[in-house]
Each structure stands twice: as structure tokens, then as C-alpha cells.
Amino acid sequence: MADAMVTGRMSAQKKLAGTRVLEGLGLTTSQAINQLFDYLINNGAMPCSEKKQRHLSKSDIIEAKLFVDSMWRPNSFSDMPYADMKRRKAAAMGYTILDAE
Q1: More exposed terminus of the chain, fewer Cβ within 10 Å: N or C?
Q2: What is the pLDDT of residues 34-64, one digit of tens each?
Q3: Distance CA 31, CA 99 (A)
Q4: Is 83:100 a contact under the CB 8 Å cutoff?
Q5: Integer Cα distance of 101 and 78 in angstroms
Q6: Reported pTM
């Protein structure tokens, strides 16, 4: 099947910002558009359409937060005790934590 060109209009600033995000994800604009169209075809809706959104209960949110918090991500705080990390992050934002959790 022959390829077809898809054209859309947006501000140059939005295109630049979106392209940077896609580069960070390891995707080209064409790959992102193809993934969007695959989603549309398979689901009959936009990925974030109101139709597909569901309201999360408090327990769903807590479960999701625990899952995300359980994922290890190396960073400048990786070798630091949690209380020290919290103090350092708070200090960077101009706060002081007297009693760490």
C-alpha cells in the first residue's frame, strides 16, 4: 500500500516543544502520528477522550501511587537516606523540614 501524507497546522512553538518530547521518547513525528492513528482505528476514540476517561476511587489512586513510588529510578538522591532526600528537596524549594517522616 502506498504511503499518504498527513498535514496539520499548529504554532511553531508547539511543534518544537512536541518534537523535543518525541525525541526524548525515541519517536519521530511520523511514528507518533502512526501510533495515534493505530489507537484511533483500534479503539474508535482519542487516547484521552472524555468517553474513555474513568473516575478513579481513592483506593485506585492510593494503589497507583504506591506502585509508582515502588519503582526505582536512579538520581542524585539514590544513595541518600529518605529523610535527607526530603530535606534536600524541600531546601531547594525554599522550605525547611524539621521532622522528617
Answers
A1: N
A2: 999 999 999 888 888 665 556 778 888 899 8
A3: 48
A4: yes
A5: 18
A6: 0.47
